[in-house]
Amino acid sequence: MEWPKELLEIFDDPLLDGVRPKAAAPTANDRMQQKLAEVNDWINKNGREPRPDGDLKEKLMYAAMTKLREKGFDVWI
Length: 77
Description:
Layout: H1 5-11, H2 28-46, H3 56-70
């Protein structure tokens, strides 16, 4: 959402210091892209795909990877 210039100027008033419009909430697609990047970073860092029998972080990455693949996303190996 684009805020009108006049409204943004009002927020620059010293009396309203620290008051800003709320940022747009991330969409489902944004969250999915972020999770895909996290899984790919994990794979690059560890040199392998996450496994379901690893530590908690690895289990979470495995679950995310599985869900992403079910939705048709390619997870890098």
